[in-house]
């Protein structure tokens, strides 16, 4: 039936306008205001009524996850709209499959007429064969823009230029160069505070509580204060505006970010056209350019803070937490010693290798030590070293150089021996799997048993290969210039008269403690404990030098 002019006002038209960040470069012709005026004039000239104007400003056309577009779809489903009008097909979208679905399926199914004004598309007409080709061309355009943008970002990343929208807290963009970072005096103290807490052994949960208690504002709050952010998060809609509600993920990202030691890290995520963010890349695949700006944190503090954050563990299952958590390690497998209790009436606390607890003696031994025994050993060692720190600094440096040389040589040999042992075991497991496969082919073993043994062998192989890789990274001889004796002396001498240990003191002073397996020497059971201090490492030779 042909509609007459008297019925035109029965049509309710929905005007849809969209502008992405890429489209902004086209100038006024692509602007939201231009689109809106063009379409409003067209609707009025046809004598139709405007039901509503739907605007998505700053949203890509590669997907339909746009607030106003979704509102339009709901209104169509609720029969509120008869006609949808856009300036051209690309305003509706640039993904040809999704756009094709709406023009060829969704709109007709809901009795909605679609018009793309500048492309001459009208779904009530018969001459729309060109529409699918235009959709494909629109997607090709977006794909080409995506590739060019990625290439430009990669170039800037390799040049060590900062390419983020907002500078990380503690920094601001240089007034003369937006790709260069300079220290922000207003917020850099917050970064120092966070690293100081992480260095002292605090986990992100504890740091978050501390920042909240001390009323230290979040990065989001600072950006809003500076006029760099408008959109409010859910937390910012709370009573206090979310000013002090730090997020654990944010804190972890700050502590792990090399930007605070003067390096720019880029290309941290895998990104795919149309899909968007997919997954985090391992650090080995990041593009890191060193010494691009002034650091806020020293490299020593950064490394120790990250090592302690990485090695933290959950409390004992009854809520009891070891002050040695994340510090005490097994020298054979590298894993932590976990807190537990024996089965005696006294229920004494003891520490045991986590690998042994999980997998048994096939992968590691107990390395068991009573908690109170280790406590006394460490307390005594700290007192001895605090006494040494009060002596002549030049003599201490001389003794430490000798100590470091011996420690490096012994530790390198120990690590090499462990790598060799693990490699032999991996080869044995490979041969075992090959024999197992032959037995299965010859029907000497059932498929269920084959799968069970295979899974167990491959699990052990994966574990050993990871341990080999971790140990190979340790075979790097440390430069003696890295020893910061003054920092160690300043820290340790404060504890000459220490009476008791706590978690904060341990993390401030000690980087790791190795508990070796017990062995019988001359008929007596002995156990070696190696204590490594922050900045200088093991001090056994130092104590021998001073006859302590």
Automatic annotation (TrEMBL):
Gene Ontology MF terms in the entry: DNA binding; DNA strand exchange activity
Coiled coil regions in record: 383-410
Keyword Acyltransferase: no
UniProt keyword Cell division present: no
Superkingdom, natural source: Bacteria
Pfam families named in the record: DUF4368 (PF14287), Recombinase (PF07508), Resolvase (PF00239), Zn_ribbon_recom (PF13408)
SMART domains per record: Resolvase
InterPro entries: DNA_bind_recomb_sf, DNA_bind_recombinase_dom, DUF4368, Resolv_N, Resolvase-like_N_sf, SSR_resolvase, Zn_ribbon_recom_dom
SUPFAM superfamilies tied to this protein: Resolvase-like
CDD domains: SR_TndX_transposase
Residue ranges constituting the Resolvase/invertase-type recombinase catalytic domain according to the UniProt record: 12-160
Domain Recombinase residues, every copy: 168-315
Record's keyword terms, sorted: Coiled coil
Name by which UniProt lists this protein: Recombinase family protein
Organism, as annotated: Citroniella saccharovorans
Taxonomic classification: Bacteria, Bacillati, Bacillota, Tissierellia, Tissierellales
């Amino acid at each position: 039936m042909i509609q007459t002019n008297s019925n035109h006002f029965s049509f309710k038209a929905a005007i849809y306008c969209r502008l992405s960040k890429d489209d902004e470069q086209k100038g006024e012709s692509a602007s939201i205001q231009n689109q809106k005026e063009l379409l409003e004039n067209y609707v009025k000239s046809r004598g139709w009524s405007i039901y509503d104007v739907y605007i998505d400003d700053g949203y890509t056309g590669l997907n339909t996850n746009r607030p106003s577009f979704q509102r339009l779809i709901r209104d169509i489903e609720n029969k509120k709209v008869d006609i949808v009008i856009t300036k051209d097909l690309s305003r509706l979208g640039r993904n040809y499959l999704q756009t094709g679905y709406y023009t060829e399926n969704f709109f007709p199914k809901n009795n909605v007429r679609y018009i793309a004004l500048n492309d001459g598309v009208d779904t009530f007409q018969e001459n729309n064969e060109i529409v699918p080709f235009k959709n494909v061309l629109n997607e090709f355009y977006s794909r080409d823009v995506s590739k060019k943008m990625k290439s430009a970002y990669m170039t800037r990343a390799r040049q060590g230029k900062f390419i983020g929208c907002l500078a990380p807290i503690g920094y601001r963009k240089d007034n003369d160069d937006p790709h260069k970072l300079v220290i922000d005096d207003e917020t850099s103290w917050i970064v120092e505070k966070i690293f100081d807490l992480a260095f002292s052994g605090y986990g992100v949960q504890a740091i978050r509580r501390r920042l909240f208690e001390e009323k230290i504002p979040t990065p989001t709050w600072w950006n809003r204060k500076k006029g760099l952010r408008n959109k409010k998060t859910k937390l910012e809609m709370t009573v206090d505006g979310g000013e002090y509600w730090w997020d654990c993920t944010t804190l972890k990202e700050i502590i792990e970010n090399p930007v605070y030691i003067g390096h720019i890290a880029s290309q941290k995520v895998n990104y795919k056209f149309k899909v968007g963010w997919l997954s985090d890349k391992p650090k080995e695949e990041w593009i890191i350019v060193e010494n691009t700006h002034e650091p806020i944190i020293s490299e020593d503090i950064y490394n120790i803070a990250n090592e302690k954050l990485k090695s933290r563990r959950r409390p004992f299952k009854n809520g009891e937490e070891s002050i040695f958590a994340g510090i005490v390690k097994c020298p054979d497998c590298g894993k932590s010693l976990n807190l537990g209790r024996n089965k005696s009436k006294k229920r004494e606390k003891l520490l045991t290798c986590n690998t042994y607890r999980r997998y048994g003696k096939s992968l590691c031994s107990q390395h068991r030590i009573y908690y109170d025994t280790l406590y006394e050993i460490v307390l005594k060692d700290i007192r001895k070293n605090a006494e040494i720190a009060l002596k002549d600094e030049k003599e201490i440096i001389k003794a430490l150089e000798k100590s470091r040389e011996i420690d490096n040589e012994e530790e390198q040999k120990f690590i090499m021996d462990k790598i060799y042992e693990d490699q032999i075991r991996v080869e044995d497991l490979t041969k075992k799997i090959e024999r197992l496969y032959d037995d299965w082919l010859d029907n000497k073993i059932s498929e269920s048993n084959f799968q069970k043994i295979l899974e167990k062998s491959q699990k052990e192989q994966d574990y050993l290969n990871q341990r080999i890789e971790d140990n190979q990274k340790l075979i790097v001889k440390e430069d003696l210039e890295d020893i910061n004796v003054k920092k160690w002396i300043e820290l340790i001498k404060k504890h000459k008269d220490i009476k008791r240990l706590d978690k904060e003191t341990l993390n401030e002073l000690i980087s790791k403690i190795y508990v070796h397996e017990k062995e019988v020497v001359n008929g007596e059971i002995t156990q070696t404990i190696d204590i490594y201090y922050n900045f200088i490492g093991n001090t056994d030779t130092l104590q021998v030098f001073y006859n302590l």
